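Suppose a colleague, Dr. K., hands you the sequence of a protein chain of 758 amino acids and asks what its three-dimensional shape might be. Before reaching for any lab equipment, you can write down a predicted structure in token form. Begin with the sequence itself:
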Amino acid sequence: MTWKLTKKNLDNPSLLVDESLLSLGNGYLGVRGNFEEGYSDSYQSIRGTYINAFHDETEITYGEKLHAFPDTQQKLLNIIDGQTVHIYLDDEKFSLFEGEILHFERHLHLDLGYAERIVHWRSLSGKEAKIHFKRFTSFVTRELFAINVKVEPIANIKQLKIVSSVNGDISNFVDKNDPRVASGHAKRLEILDVKKEDAYSMVKDITYASELEVACVTTTKIKASNYTYDSNVTSSSIVEEYTSDGNNPVELSKFNIYTDTLRHGKELFDAALTVHKKIENITFDQHLAVQKEYLDNFWFTSDIEIKGDEQLQQGIRFNIYHLMQSVGKDSVSNIAAKGLSGEGYEGHYFWDTEIYMFPVFLMTNPSLAKKLLLHRYTLLDSARQRAKEVGHTQGALFPWRTITGGESSAYFPAGTAQYHISADIAYSYIQYYLVTKDEAFLNNYMAEVLFETARLWIDTGHMKNGQFRIDDVTGPDEYTCIVNNNYYTNAMAKHNLLWAAKVYQILKENYYDKLKELTSKLNLSEIEVDQWKDAGEKMYLPYDEEHQINAQDDSFLSKKRWDLDNTPKDKFPLLLNYHPLTLYRYQVCKQADTVLAHFLLEDMQDSETIKRSYDYYENITTHDSSLSFCVFSVMASKLGYEQKAYDYFTETACLDIDNLHGNTKDGLHMANMGGAWLAIVYGFAGLRVKESGLSLSPSLPVKWESLVFKLQYHNRLIQVKMEKTMVTYLVLEGEGLTISHNGESIYLESGKEVDTRY
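The predicted structure, expressed as tokens, is then:
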């Protein structure tokens, strides 16, 4: 059970959700879990195939457009459909919405890397067959999406026909009633070419504005005792038909290769054919064997083993698997808010990556984490440009939502005003350095990013009464916008500024030639560096004497508290039922804000202030954002609220499987999936990565028998096993090292288990 997700529902709401849950991806290519044969006319489906970062530019329309409002936004596109396979038993078309279903089940195999659907079906006239679908997106050949269909005749069938098609006439899904989903611009692809060459069906499209091209080149292979073949090419699609007698099983394998101009140049058909030639002698089952081998290696370092709750064990493995399926692995892509599982948030990358998803890869697969940071580095010039657009003379302002680096949010109070994103990105660079000690990375990328983000804070903030203050920004809580001295923003900016000054000093002492190169490139002076240090040390961090907590901002605690207890359940999430100005006038939080800062930068406040702040903000937080439960779980673990930590974690771990937010149909909540991992490793295990080293403060949930996971740190692979009365540490790979366990230093000798009491 814990290594697969099984679904047996056929009602429309469940099918829409299952399309997301059973989606497949490999970081480059994503395919929703649609039925190959489609649905009945009365059923809604979001049929989708996506390439990470493949987008068009669409115009943003304003009633009143002001200076530096973005003119366009990027939009992830649904691309050429290679999923479709129809099956005919004589003249009756197979459909799960007609006839009699004698057996139906679907599985997503987390350890094997494929999805399957098993059906035993009887038509209206009594024709009967067993049909077995399998599909995967390859983890090794990133362009490959393959389908295998086996049809076993059971009764009353004279003729079997399998029809496979590739269709280039594709649109995106729209929902005008939900701002989290695209509300327009459905049709953004134009067909360039459709043709059949030898065994290959070839379709190529181009986007309307960005002029990016995408191609799908497909070949099919049949196993049947005897059959006839036919094909038909139209202006938008290619259809292949295989017809055999109804007495023997038939098996069709369909291999779709997707290429795009972001990675493959202009000759997309040639690029696709090159890939086809490399895999032409590999069978479908052999591809599945390669999938398993890849996943064996992945799970060795990334698995989290929970004994004591099978549902949560399945939930965390499901989350980790989808994170792996969604993470961009090249220089032009990142992780979208919905991964490659749907069109929610239009395929945009948010700060979710750095704070919620990046740590998973940092601690289990640092090479993938590095790729995410390198992608952000490629957007640095765009961030510099955005800073200038909004009136800054220096620095880098990273966008709230983007694909190629430009701001894609038309709503600036909860978009561009979230300046903390620049500090979030800096924070992730610092964490990467602390975990890997990658000096070349510090020299070639990290220093420049930290310097440019530090410059932003100097140009944004100002000194008043000996304190550095930052006005008119929005923190993570989008129910409170355009405020002075948001605690989270100021704390993260402080961290950013002080580390920028520290990195300058590291370069000065150890890599002077590199420092000279950077100072010349950036026109940087030591006077600036002194400003960074001074501003960081004098950063104002709001504190309320009456409540003895960190105020979320200068005005937050003076507002009236929202009456959450008496707000009707159908009014949540609040953002869909109340005007933003109404929300801004109350003490009400969409998600963790100050509490998130206390998690990321716990050393900036004493433990009692953190505890009082947690207690206060918990009572006014709606958790309307999927980014919230996990943070409250992590901090509840830190504060000793064991039951709260567990309850918040359970909300996080199964948020998509149980569709707790009601919008999983639009794609999976990738940041929440990363957050579930955080709730375990940073929460129950108490992991922290600081300059002083690696520390853990473990506390096993009462309901669990044990918890086992692994960490990558300083070129070591460390296994942590938490049981009822003890914690066992083991360095599996690399040299021994000293870590902190509950505040005490212990040395871990390589290859030798070290048992410690809680």
